[in-house]
Amino acid sequence: MDIILNIIKSVIFGIVQGVTEFLPISSTGHLILLQTFMPLNVFADPAKNKAFWDVYKVVIQFGSIFVCTAIVLEAFMPTRQKNVSEPKKKNIYHTWLMVVVASIPLVAGMLLNDWIDNVMSAPYVIGITLILYGILFIWMENREKKYTIEHVSQITPKKAFGVGMFQILALVPGTSRSGSTIFGATLLGFNRSTAAEFSFFMAIPAMFGASLLKILKADFSFGFLATHDFTDWYSGFVYRFNYCDSYLNELHS
């Protein structure tokens, strides 16, 4: 019965994560709040359960990663397309170079990951950040806008690095990765569509890196490969994948 209940909970977690991932609201923050009211208790030992949860809330991002990668490989990899013009190839390679530059600050920011997990993963922190970013987005939408970058080909290394600095804010629970990068890009002169597009590209290394780091640092003594643990992860992953796939395909079309 406990296994079935945990699978149902994991499905709900996957749906919430999939729906919130590409909106400018924190997917991890919503998961932490959901865990507070509807805990996913896999182990009787609180320490093992906390270790499991710390990995679970990041690993189910692989569903989104696979969807992002599939879409990007189809549309933004020159080697997978026929009759691609040289200017378009140049723009694609430029975009990925800027993504690499934008990802550099996050690598340094990940050094604070353990401290943030231990100190700032509290519901009140999430509540404050959700309210704060809501206010900031209202301000951003109502301020006078002056766009200097209207296509990803116009992004400079300096601008890309600046957006990457805003992505570090996503390490704080309750802060949306897409929200912080779109907000930062807009402040730096990106128009809305370019900010959203570049944020989407930045999601792949950011989510993949965070998931991989959690797996490598995990204490696997809590039973990573136990059947019921894998089932919980798989349930969340599948539903996250399906929701992200449906949402992004609709957006792409």
Note down, in words, how this protein is organized.
It is a single chain. The longest helix has 26 residues, at 192-217. It contains 11 helices and no strands. It is an all-alpha fold and 253 residues long. Helix 5 packs across helix 10 and helix 7 packs parallel to helix 9 (177-187). 72% of the residues lie in helices and 0% in strands. The protein has helices at residues 2-20, 27-37, 46-59, 62-75, 86-109, 113-119, 123-142, 157-167, 177-187, 192-217, 227-252.
Task: List the defining traits of the structure above.
253 residues, mainly alpha
What sequence of helices (H) and strands (E) makes up the elements?
A: HHHHHHHHHHH
N→C terminal distance: 42 Å
Major sheet attributes: none
Shape: globular
User: What is the helical fraction, as a range of percent?
Assistant: over 70%
* DSSP, total strands: 0
What is the typical, i.e. mean, pLDDT? 76
What structural class results from the helix and strand content? Answer: mainly alpha
**DSSP summary: helix tally:** 11
List segments where confidence is low: pLDDT < 50 over at least 5 consecutive residues: 221-230, 232-248
Over all CA atoms, what is the radius of gyration?
Answer: 19 Å
In percent terms, what proportion of residues is strand?
under 5%
